[in-house]
Amino acid sequence: MINGFKGKSKARVVTTAAITAAALVATIGLGTSTSSAAFKSADVNTGKLVYWFWGESDIPGSTAWMQAAIKKYQALHKGLTIELVPQNSDTLQGAFETTAQSKSGPDIAMQWATLPVLTPVWRGQVSSLKGLVAPSEMANWLNTSENVSGGESWAMPLYLLGQPFVWNKALFKKAGLNPDKGPTTWKEFLADCAALKKAGITPVVMGDKDGFFGSWFQGTIGTQNLNSVKELQEVYAGKAKFTDSKYSDYLTKLAELKAKGYINNDVTSIDLTQGWQAFAQKKGAMTWTTDGNVATWIKAGMGADLGVQSVPKVGTGKLASFYTATQSISAYITSWSKNKQAAANFLVWLHQPENVKSWYTATGSFPADKRFSATLIKDPVMKALYKLNTLPNQLWAQNYAPPQVDSQGLQPAAQGVLAGTSTAKQAAAAIQKAIDAWRTQQPKDLAAYKKWAGV
Amino acid sequence: MRKLFGSTYRHAFLIILSLASVYPVWFIFQTSLKTNKEYLLNPLALPLHPVLSNFKETFTSFPVAHWALNSVIIAIFSVAGAMFIALLASYAMVFSKMRGVNFLLSTNIALMVIPPVTLVIPMFMLMVNLHLINTLPSVIIFYIGLFVPFSVFFLTNFMKSVPYELIEAAKIDGLTPFAILRRIVVPLSSAALFTLMLVNIIYAWNELLIALVFLQQQESRTLMSGLSLFQGRYSINQPLVMAGAFVSVLPILLMYIFGQRFFVKGMMAGIGK
Amino acid sequence: MVLIILLVFIYPLIAVIRNSFYSGSISNLSFIGTANYVNLLRDEVFVHAILNNIKLLLTVPITTAISLSAALILYENIRGWKLYRVILFLPYIIPAAVVGLSFSYLLQGNGILNTALRNLHLNFAALDWIGSTTLSIYSIGAVIIWSQFGFGVVVLTASLLSLPTEVSEAALVDGATRWQRQRFVIIPQIKETVQFLMVLQAITALAWVFPYIYTITKGGPANSSMVMDLYIWQYGFSLGAVGMASAAAVYLLLLSGVLIFIYSRMRKRQSDI
After folding, report:
1. Which of A426, B15, C74, C235 lies 20 to 30 Å from A189 when distance is taken between CA atoms?
2. Predicted confidence band at C226 (pLDDT cuts at 50, 70, 90)?
3. How many domains does chain A contain in total?
4. Which positions ≥6 away from C91 have C-beta within 8 Å?
5. Average pLDDT, 10 consecutive residues per value, chain A (455 residues)
6. Phi, psi of A332 (to 5 degrees)
7. In angstroms, what CA-CA distances link B236 with A274, A364, B37, B240?
8. Topology of B63-233 in CATH?
């Protein structure tokens, strides 16, 4: 191989070439937004939009649909290009926070509703939809209240998402349980688990390597002793303690599941989607999942074996009757975008009736738009899910936790319990510590949170 | 008899080590040849019906070729820059009668120990302010800075073994310092330089943290950071992820298989003392 | 050279120290004095991270022992030693991100390794390698050893081969056994190289393990495998708490500084002998 450093003059040439080339590359890299602000043409729908998209984990097939939709939209607006950049679940928040620090990045980004959207809002990273989207259009969107702060709407919903509790009817039958009846109380749940275990079937199968299950368990089981959303907000704002059993009793129940061997033994070494994969392979009888995955399982032929419902009732607060649903991932326009109106127009177009319909046909999940007609849903399981999603009382509690508290508190604490190394009490204390840490480290976020929650 | 016994154990030890060395890499390759269905049914065994579709899909679902190009550009320029600077610096430190050389060398060792992650946040902000973020030069500059201390350490160590009489003789002959560098020192150090170049290239190619943070946009990503995106996106399609992983390793692997003779020679020249 | 060092090292170091006295995200800083340093020590996760890095230092003697044993065997001209050397070096060139990917599947609770162990009726050995809070960091350590030992093999073989053969031959004539020969004659001669190797590996274990943790466990479960460079990345980038991350970086630097101090003391003592 050639060693190219024979002599300073040659090296100098190489370096000059290097610097020139580097400069070239820099210019190529920098000059991404071609037309943008300087181009005050009549048609505002020109230029380039970068769209950081997430959805596949909730709704398999959503990325493909979005890509097709973009193609269609670009054909309608020849001067516009939209670049779709799919994001990962476990770096969704981190990647955006990182790019936000450079005040550059995507034009449209997505985060889960409420706190994950409002945190960037409070940090000045998001453009308000006021002025960009006509109120008459917005009136058709569902669940927009989840992203309201300071009286303004900040993000657009795409689909409705429920978090059903699903069981495999065939496996229930095998264990001698009534296949059409899912557990409705904690006692029943434990009894069903015992019967399944006896029959050699893993009762609950989940993946928690990425931590989300811990947050979901808190959201579905852990809020059932509370009476209002405000009580939930109080614990994050510091007005109540998480170690109080009305907030942390769910950890005891999680520990119970683990101790009795009712949950798969590799739960902490596989991630969420792999856990669902295991359920689809009939390696477990019950799981927490999202509508989109149920739709996929129906498509794969499992429909007759699927039972869906809300989680068992374990608490006595008013929130016990709430179903865990949300508009899940919300799209917003960044504050540094040079094509805000073009971005807004694209988002509004996604909600037009024909697109709403095609979304449903392609993915089987429910668009967050009033113009979607429920009569299009034919499958009985999906019908049941839609009914659950449109119940009047909904709460996706995880969305009310500041992202830092979620990832540093709720999630590791649950992992500790599932790995068998923390007691429920220790886990609760750890979560409280995480809440305190957030309040100290992010005083400005805390102030905004208090103002928004009215606590 | 004893000798034979010992020999068997030694062979066994090496064989076990070799199998352990190869299997994880082989596993990646083997899995990438399976369809997802086959993998789920039988993760351990050899593929019954090997397919190449995963490789095709790797290239179509993400701009993998573009990312590879980015990795190549970064590797070439950062290594070239670092080597150039280190070569001059080492030469000056060893052969010119500079004062305070020992101090510089000690400082140099201290710099080697600084973990890159401690420097990342301020460097990130610097690049943002210079409007270089998400461009390849930001990473290139950072890598050059990171490679220089180790390169200087390596080269000064080696150059010390160049007989000073040669240099003196050349000086008497009237050669300028640069000519001495070019005609005498560099040819003698070619093996060491080559080794250093390869070590730095491997590092630049494999680096994840800085590439992940500085280059977040689709078109500026490197292969390694793109792989992590890939992994998250297709986590339930293990064969596809493995295909992506294999593709990202392939250039280095090929370089190694064909160039390992030179590489080892160079290592021996540079380290053996 | 000075320019680039200033840019890449000095400026960030000063910025890091400055930032460590603030809280909030980078666009939102507010001064809080030494609160970050105090809070870090109170944060169990951070303390655990430091302990984990120290645990990872255990990989250094193990890796060195494996490399040394392999090198000694290869040195004795065992049949096919060149091929062995090529194979054993393979893990080193595979990028950490890909290594992590492969092992994250191999080490799952019901993954390849455990399935194989169960097939061999060794069920008791099929532990929860990455899902257990007590095992996770050690599993990472094992992966690091796998990845790094090849480097030592090549370096030490090179070093051994450059030794003058008369010394060991003389020992043979004197009737020394192979073990005696190795221990008292050969190894002391390559002591400096071994030390150099160990320092490099210690530096790696302290500050260059990010890609392994990030791809295999992300610091979990329950932060049991958290290490300092992941902690800094998480707080600095994922969560935008720059002050905490900077203070953590300062702690990491101090720890590395201690290590370097020990090493230079060791060398000084050696050159005094």
Report:
1. A426
2. very high
3. 2
4. B21, B24, B25, C99, C146, C147, C148, C149, C150
5. 36 45 40 39 78 84 90 91 82 80 85 91 91 90 88 91 92 92 93 94 93 92 92 93 93 94 92 89 92 86 90 89 86 93 93 92 87 87 89 88 91 93 93 90 88 89
6. -140, 165
7. 6, 20, 11, 9
8. MetI-like fold (1.10.3720)
| Interchain pair A442, C241: CB under 8 A | yes
| Per-residue model confidence (pLDDT) at position C170 | 64
Q: Read off the pLDDT band of B265 (50, 70, 90).
A: low
Q: Which residues of B touch A274 (CB under 8 A)?
A: 235-236
The whole-number pLDDT of residue B188 equals 72
Enter the pTM of the model: 0.81
Tell if the CB–CB gap between A97 and C107 is shorter than 8 Å. no
Interface residue of A441, A442, A444, A446 to substitute, partner C, most C CBs within 10 Å: A441
Exposure string for C31-54, b = 16+ CB within 10 A, e = fewer: ebeebbbebbeebebbebbbebbe
Q: How many CA atoms lie within 13 A of A273 on its CB side?
A: 19
Domains of chain C: 32-272 (1.10.3720.10)
On whether both A51 and A95 belong to a single domain, the answer is: yes
Q: What one-letter code names the amino acid at A239? A: K
CA distance, residue B99 to nearest chain A CA (Å): 23
Q: Please tell me if residue C256 touches chain B, with a CB cutoff of 8 Å.
A: yes
Question: Are A269 and C237 an interchain contact pair (Cβ–Cβ within 8 Å)?
Answer: no
Which tokens sit at B88? 């001059």
CA pair distance A417, A420, nearest whole angstrom: 5
ipTM associated with this complex = 0.78
User: Which residues on B lie below 8 Å from C117 (Cβ)?
Assistant: none
Q: Give the domain extent around A287.
A: 164-323+396-441
